[in-house]
Amino acid sequence: MSMDFNYDEIMKKVGFKYVVPVMVAKRVQILKEEGFDATAKPLVKTSDNNFVTIAFKEIEKGHVRLKNKDKLEEYKPEVK
């Protein structure tokens, strides 16, 4: 699998390292279950057409975003 995405950019957008794999897994699940119909077609092009690579790239480009990110902010610990 080639790295067609920049993980640092994804972390800037998402902000939670444990949420990224959940987002990717959920997007892959949608792509697999729905196939390539109008609601679940890939929003980016990748060199290998791998669902995981597509999901990472969609997050990086901002096509797939974290819903209710503000609620997750409440759970961030305060570091002194």
In short:
The chain has helices at 7-14, 19-34, 51-61, 69-73. By secondary structure, it is mostly helical.
Description:
It is a single chain. The protein is mainly alpha-helical and 80 residues long. Helices cover 50% and strands 0% of the residues. It has four helices and no strands. The protein has helices at 7-14, 19-34, 51-61, 69-73. Helix 1 crosses helix 3 (51-61) and helix 2 packs across helix 3 (51-61).
Tell me, rounded to a whole number, the average pLDDT. 87
What is the tally of beta strands?
0
What ranges have pLDDT less than 50 throughout 5 or more consecutive residues? none
Radius of gyration (Å): 14 Å
Task: Classify the beta-strand content into a percent band.
Answer: under 5%
Structural class designation: mainly alpha
User: With helices defined by DSSP (H or I, 4 residues minimum), what is the helix count?
Assistant: 4
Distance between the termini: 40 Å
N-to-C SSE series?
Answer: HHHH
Shape: elongated
Fraction of residues in H or I helices = 40-55%
Largest sheet: none
Give the topology, please.
Elements: H1 7-14, H2 19-34, H3 51-61, H4 69-73
Helix pairs in contact: 1-3, 2-3
